[in-house]
Model the fold of this input.
Amino acid sequence: MIEVQSIDKSFAGQRVLRELGFEIPDGRITALLGANGAGKTTCLRIVTGLLRADAGRVLLGGRDVAADPLAARRQLGVVGDREGLYERLTVEEYLTLFARMQGLAGAALRQSLDAVREELELGELWKRRTRGFSQGERMKVSLARALVHRPQHLILDEPTRGLDVLAARLLRRTLLRLRAEGTTILFSSHVMSEVAELSDCVLVMADGRIVGNGSPAELMENTGSDNLEDSFVALAYGSAARSECIEGTPA
Amino acid sequence: MVRIRRLLWGLALCLGSALASPAIAQQAPAGERCYLDGWGDALRCYRVPVSQSVGQSGHFPDGLAVMVAPAVNDGGREPLYLLAGGPGQAASELAPLLNAFRKVNRERAIVMVDRRGAGRSGAFRCGFERDMPADLEQFSRQLADCYLQRADFAESLSSRQTVADLERVRRYLGHGRIALWGGSWGTRTALLYQQWHPQSLSALVLDAVAPIDSKVFLAASAAEEALRELERDCVADPECARLGDWKGDLNRLLQGWSEQQARTFPDPLTGAPAAEPVKRWVLANAVRAALYDPGAAAQLPYAVRQASRGNYLPLSGLTGLFINNADSMAMGLTFSVACAESLNRISAEEVARDSADTFLGTAFFDLFHSGCEAWPVSAKPYGAPEPRDHPVLLISGSADPITPPVYAERRLDYLPNRQHLIVAGGGHINSRRGCIPGLIARFLNTPAEPLDKTCVAGIERPPFMVDAYGPALGGKAGAEPAAEEVASD
Amino acid sequence: MMGLGNFSTRRMAALLRKEMLETWRDRRALWMAVCFSLLFPVMIAGSTTFFVKKHAEETTRLALLGAERAPLLEQRLRSDTLKVDALEQGEPRALLAGDYDVVLQLGEDFAGDYRNFRTPQLYLYVDSSSTATGRAERHLQERLGKLQQLVVGQRLVARGVAPQLLAPWKLEVRDVSTPSGRGAMLLAMVPGLLILTLFVASLATSVDTSAGERERLSLETLLLQPMPAWQVIAAKTLAVASMGWLGSLLAIAAMVALMPAMPLAELGIQQATTTAGVITMGLLLLPLALLVAVVQILLALRSQSFKDAQTQLSILQLAPVTVLMALDMSRVELDHPLWQLVPLVGQQQWLKSLLVGDPVSLPLVLAGSAASLLLVAMAVALGARALRRESLLGAL
Done:
């Protein structure tokens, strides 16, 4: 469960988030939609604890991210930008080190590594340094790193950007499996078809606020559109609508 | 974590030992910082305790004075010990030699040991500080008094004791084999050390060698030969040649030297007539002394020529060149060793043969002979030298008036590994001249290899004084005489 | 600072291992460190050797105009270092422009004036803009001085005067320096260069691990691990310092290894650096390496971009040398023990002493090193705070 409770955030006098609040339930895949500059990245960074909110708070599994960041992070996996690999480390080294940083050791460590290798089909890449990896390969490694410690909460920032078909399929499969295991999943995206296909719930952000939420079907219905893209445009740039899928505080 | 801490502890210990080590790492005794005149860098000075032989007086509470110029970079090469002449000269007086031995000193310590009765090891001067009395009788009287006061000490001094002391110093300083440089009488000490402690010795450098069986106090023939060589070189120089038969002038001057001349001979320091009359034997010895140094010898022809014409100033000025040399000889030590080890072996016939037809005559011998009569120490003969195969470098000046090159050539056959450098026109002691210091350094580093001696030929006599203006800078040095001057002669 | 109580050795070890792997696998940074570390010892050794060789072996050439008027003069001027060519005639300027370093011209009636005690003139033509001239002039003065002394001596003797009358006293110079201390002048720049090596060797790594990681967006991932921020800074500091330290150790080793090849003995300098001294030097530099690393990381984190960080740090690496030189030039007495508590200055003083074999005070070294380490700790804390600043994460 990710609880975002009326957070405010300003940069250099400019208000980026305005009393933003929502809850992400366990065992669901939630998409965060928003135009560029809507405050998605800031929102995600506050949720992960990288940034501190000016007001309000974020709870991950009931733990305050700002007050007890280390405990919150143990239950958190983040797939940020896929550039965040270390080119001079092999996949095995990379994953081992991050698993250790998460506190894994011994048999548990080996099991976790074997598991992500299998799940994300990293066998061939395992002993290679990550320099020169394709976008898909990078995503797989990033995802493996985010999952190696089996976190309850998984946050992904535009995970499908630049992925080929196979990689995108693997990602989808993984997310669906994780959902089945009860993981709380939040991802941001631009790709409407993917959002429509993957997500159970959609949050639409505009101007630092949630302007719409609900299942993709609900959103289309509420906005009277026959596709998600139109309903997103309507929500982000036009009139607001309300849904009961997620309890939020619309404008 | 434990491992890291242990590692840190290890580093701390290491740091501690590194910081502490400069203070403790000294296997040899440290010595005191000191200086000697003629050498600007600091030396290490030691006092090496010497035990007194039973039944001998002459206290030695302070021990032997030992001065060491440490090697700039001590690579473990054997040190070089400098042995002074005399026998009354102190090794500490040799400090100026360090300037010439800089190259040697880079890798070797240079050690100077003042032998008992010399320099800083209780100089036995008998009251002769600077000026020697010109009167032989008074000289003998003063010596006799001195002897009576410290007869046991006088008797105790000998080459054997000096060699034993050197060996003691070598062990005290923790040196393994050592190399020796001996100059003049110091070569005698070095050769005896080689006889008695061959296992302690690596190589010998002997400048102006006085072989073990040589009679160096019979110096009249050698001085005469040095003067003849000077004459030959003068004749070969067109400007000097114009001074004519100055050697004949010298003989006439000495033969006819009168009381009047002795009394009016000017003092080179004050310009006034000398306080002590300059007697014939003093004058002859002054000429002999001038032959020690080629620079002084180059002024002899003109000085003698002028004296024969009644102008004694140049000759007086020449004696002024040696004024400071007298103070380094400890007379008590000189006579103890010279009388017991050399003078007693000289017979009257030998003296007559040596002095016949020489400008010096017995003027030099008489000084020692009369001194030894006042200094009745017992004879201390050495055995005949046994063969030794240490590498030996011999250096001679062809015009040395006391240890001529024939000594090195004829009396050292028992040393198969010897090399001989002869400096043409060179006087007594040539170690500082030209390329000789470099050759010494090379010899010490590779004593078994023959040296390339060609550079020795480049050492020249200083230019002759030909007139009151000094050397003939404008003359045709080494060339044929100018035509008009030959015509006018 | 986030709670020290959460410190986990295992997690820290993993982080440190990651930083070390990253650092030591960076070939470019490693090469830069190694090359610079070897560069200056080689340069010092080379220039010293060259200087001594030139000084000792180089002969200078003198053109003697009018030599036929004083053949003996010509002969006495010759030496191993001064080559004399007697020329009938020639134009001094042209000769100086040609092969000759100095030109000596004898006056018209040199020989006559000399004989008549009239002090004839010698004209020395020099080109003071040429480097060889000074040496040639020295060589000539040396020979001429000796000859003059000889002539004066003979003239005095000819008048019955002992030449010592011209020397009313004799000045004996006693040098209190030690043969190893004489190396201090030559080796004075070495501590500064060792410290500079620290800066240069760790430069690329520190930029890469901070500004570089931020630009590659991997810093964010790192900060999302359940570890306090100070550990991130500390691990990076250790990794960067390891590179800088290696550089300076390499430089020390090269310096000491090259010393026997340097003609120090010819300069009368004793090589006094001991093995223990070398080890001590290495250990002394460790706290400084940490300090340099953490300061570089902080600066790089503050900068706008990778490029900006490189520029800033390049300027920073001039700072120590400038400071140390300024202190040296202003002749500030650095003997006071308090100076040894100042980072850079303290290390410089200790290195200087150890290089010439002088002892250093253990309590002061420990105190000074502790002062440096305290600064490191403060800088790490500062860095941990900086990691929480939003501007650090770059464009939003």
User: Anything to note?
Assistant: Residues 128-156+217-381+459-489 of chain B form one domain. Chains B and A do not touch (no CB pair under 8 Å). Residues 226 and 476 of chain B are 25 Å apart (CA to CA).
